[in-house]
Amino acid sequence: MRITAVFLLLAPVLVQGQGSGTIEGTVVGALTQAPIPGVTVIVQSSDAAGKSGKRSTTTDASGTFRIEGVDDGEYVASFEHAGFAPFGRDDPSGKPFRVSGSSPVRLRAELVSLAKLSGRVLAGDQPAASATVELVRSGVMAASARADDQGIFQLESIVPGRYLLRARPETVQKGVADTKSQDEGEPRESSPQGGELADEKLAGEELPDEATDWMPTYYPGVVDRLTAATLVIRPGAELYGHDFSLRAAPVFPLRGTVHTPDALPVPGATVTLSDAEGRGMSPQRTKTNQDGVFEFPRVPEGEWRLRAQQRPVNITWSGTASVFINPGEPAAPQLWISAPFDVEGFVDYDDPPNSSRTHNVTALYLVPADPLSEQYHGFHDKRGRFLLRSVQPGRYRIRPTGAVPGYYLAGAFLGGSDVLNQAVDLYSRAEPIRVLYKPNGGRVQGQVENGQGSLVALIPQDEGLRHTQFIHTTTPGHRGGFELSGLRPGDYYAFAFERAAHFEPDLLEDVTFIRNLVSQAVSVRVNDNSASSVELKITPWPEY
Question: Domain range for residue 482?
Answer without folding.
Answer: 442-539
